[in-house]
Amino acid sequence: MDLNTDLVQELLGALPHEGGVLTDPDLLQSYEHDEADLVPYGTPAVVVRPRTTGQVSAVLRAATRHRIPVIPQGARSGLAGGANAIEGAIVLSLTGMNEIIDIDAANRIAVVQPGVVNAQLRRAVAAEGLYYPPDPGSWEQSTIGGNVSTDAGGMCCVKYGVTSDHVIGLEVVLASGEVLNCGRRTAKGVAGYDLTSLFVGSEGTLGVITEITVKLRPAPEPALTLVAVFDTLAAAGAAVSAVVSSGMQPSMLEVIDRVTLTAIEAYRPMDLPTAAAALLVAAVDSGGRAPDDLARIAAMCRSAQASDVYVASDEAEADSLLAARRLAHPALEHFAAQLFPGGGGIMVDDVAVPRTRLVELIEGIEFISAEHGVVVATVGHAGDGNLHPIIVIDRSDPVNLAQGQKVFDAIMSLGLSLGGTSTGEHGVGLLKRDWLAREIGPTGLKAHRSIKTALDPDNILNPGKVF
Amino acid sequence: MDLNTDLVQELLGALPHEGGVLTDPDLLQSYEHDEADLVPYGTPAVVVRPRTTGQVSAVLRAATRHRIPVIPQGARSGLAGGANAIEGAIVLSLTGMNEIIDIDAANRIAVVQPGVVNAQLRRAVAAEGLYYPPDPGSWEQSTIGGNVSTDAGGMCCVKYGVTSDHVIGLEVVLASGEVLNCGRRTAKGVAGYDLTSLFVGSEGTLGVITEITVKLRPAPEPALTLVAVFDTLAAAGAAVSAVVSSGMQPSMLEVIDRVTLTAIEAYRPMDLPTAAAALLVAAVDSGGRAPDDLARIAAMCRSAQASDVYVASDEAEADSLLAARRLAHPALEHFAAQLFPGGGGIMVDDVAVPRTRLVELIEGIEFISAEHGVVVATVGHAGDGNLHPIIVIDRSDPVNLAQGQKVFDAIMSLGLSLGGTSTGEHGVGLLKRDWLAREIGPTGLKAHRSIKTALDPDNILNPGKVF
Fold this sequence. Notes:
The structure is a homodimer. By secondary structure, chain A is of the alpha+beta class. The first copy, chain A, has helices at 2-14, 25-29, 53-66, 118-126, 144-150, 157-160, 195-199, 233-245, 258-267, 290-303, 315-326, 328-339, 358-372, 398-417, 433-455; strands spanning 21-22, 46-48, 70-73, 90-93, 100-104, 109-112, 130-131, 167-173, 179-183, 208-215, 217-218, 224-230, 252-257, 278-284, 308-311, 344-348, 351-352, 376-381, 386-394. Chain A folds into 3 domains: 2-93, 2-Layer Sandwich (Uridine Diphospho-n-acetylenolpyruvylglucosamine Reductase, domain 2), CATH 3.30.43; 100-218, Uridine Diphospho-n-acetylenolpyruvylglucosamine Reductase, domain 3; 224-417, FAD-linked oxidase, cap domain/gating helix (Vanillyl-alcohol Oxidase, Chain A, domain 3, 3-Layer(aba) Sandwich). Chain A contains 15 helices and 19 strands. In chain A, strands 12, 13, 14, 15, 16, 17, 18 and 19 form an 8-stranded antiparallel beta sheet that branches. A 5-stranded antiparallel beta sheet of chain A has the order 5-6-10-8-9. In chain A, a hairpin with a 4-residue loop joins strand 5 (100-104) and strand 6. The first copy, chain A, is globular, with a radius of gyration of 22 Å. At the A-B interface, strand 9, helix 7, helix 8 and helix 15 of A face strand 9, helix 7, helix 8 and helix 15 of B. Chains A, B: Its cofactor is FAD. Chains A, B: Residues 40-219 form the FAD-binding PCMH-type domain.
């Protein structure tokens, strides 16, 4: 307790602004965990909300002196427990550092603080005719800092890549409190090790990101969108394979299965074809070539036995299709609560396989679901081979929970056996530490540990996460 | 000597094939250095040419046991001395590991050994309708392993990015001899630290790359090409700024100055407009939109006072323009030899600035050249803000050499002052160690050192390079 009193005094000295240091137990509770279900968390001793890089340095120096873990947090919308607090730790919330420092339209870059919300950046650059592609499902809540720390993806990735494809420079506060600048503002640059990429996706275990330089693209051409309806998931998968093998570059290629459709329709009725096994939502933003591209995708869907292919007549209609896709998580939570009134919940998985193995993954998930008698909704970024199987569980029933965990493990195992990875875009956090170890093997783990030790010798930064 | 005899015996045991271990002094000499001028090198004690990853492991285990430095080498076409041998070291030449292991057309990836030549990979994937964009000037000689180690660029980068934008997985032999697999074969994947990006561009200081997985693109549409002729370099720079600020995505945007034009014309006469201050060569591969895009670029060049704009009538003509651009290095070497028969040579520099600062960089280089009375030819990837000022020197004249070094330093200093980086694509090697230190500062250097020590605790891998 004395230690903590000392620490809090020190933190109050460094962050004297109102709300800079929180110790009220009710407030502390609200910083305990992100949106991952069924992973452990504790109550922090203190929450700090710095406004400057200097304050972040001060917090890390104090933490190092007291040997207290620091858990960096953004909007806590993560899905792997990467931002979960440890009992007695310092939570370092970066949502107050939310300034867009610079939008340099001529050089097509933006410099932002980590607490800037994804949608805020997207809108600000759109006003300059520019485009920041990464669009995780949480884009209205999640912060760029969190997106960078987890290397977040979204629906854009099939054409535009994930967050790491857009970050070119970082300011990072190291465990020692020293401020490291890495990367550049130039279009090209290869000076020294690519530390920028090392910090992207490191989930707060190597340093605290306090400034981010991203590259921007010209605003894309307006997208044309279609929906194809399939009687089997495998047929939808076959259509995806045809599209991705064709060399075309759709700007979106998403799959939504029957369980998800039913849940969305129940949550917000919009005449979705709930009798279908799956919908594909595809978009192209290839300008003058777009109508041809869309027609080719439509033809490929029909060849793959789509029972209906429907082209959105305008952007408004396309947006409403996207809105449906974006409702998958809340709708499935609602569905779970109705199915299991005592404790319904969802485990959101994230697995990516080589695109040509998508059908095998989809069929395997169906088999696993049936075998264990557990409802699994499948939705995701089909064009990337990246699916989010969502396992519907009853938290109040230990038998059901155990089955849910078995299903989760079986899907992870299937993904790896298909040459895939245990996380396409959500990160490892606490949820997938064992799977990371299995995926990268002992030599990979050893390399991870040695780098972690090199940059954070006292292991104060988000300890226990990732590996 | 005993130590070396022991070592050689051990290496012969591990690499028993013909030519696996070279100790003939004449042969050793030919492995001493890459193509950088005026940087130090030594004679290796032994050159090993492994054929398998297991043999690379054996070499590194032996080197670690004997505490002898290992210098990985590809085609030695690098321009920063990164592959230069150290006296008494083991040179590890990877040109014998030159197999294309897999081209997976449906998933658009290729898996190759490091000794595969860039052009060999490009042609192999082109046969499948695919495209591997990175195209360094040395593409007919340089290896993918070397390209990855230096994060090589080329003329494609303005649209398609550098080597690191295309590498998704690596097999790396660590200093301990352990084999690390990092990255993935999937379109997306964020499992653990991005070790792949850490090794890309690390110039052989962190591990020996023995297998590379790259992503491929669909074959691009045929390019349309134009040449614009300018009376001042600044006018050419203004045209570049207009094009890059417009949001268009040319597939090439190169500048060639008068000195370079004159040198190329003297080396291989092709009616280049040697009275011009600069040529811009621009290409677009945007399919149906390409003629419009090219017309817009032409209009921008005319607005920037181009004295002539010439559209290539077909791909053959465009190819001959590119061939001229690719002759810059040998032509300038020839020019230097004629200018200074006693010891003419060139120092190839590489500096990148934010694209909007290009005119300032170009004008600054002209000023520096005039101020020091040293001929500087400027050629490069204007669309990326990445120039290669080529300093023409007389190796036999210490005064001229000293002036050349001053010009080199002044250009580096100018680049950094414009918010640029000391190397856009050639790497640091030995040539730019001091400039890297200046660019990344003491905290950056410390982070580099700690990572180097974590992965190579005995400092046997290409010691002394980069920092």
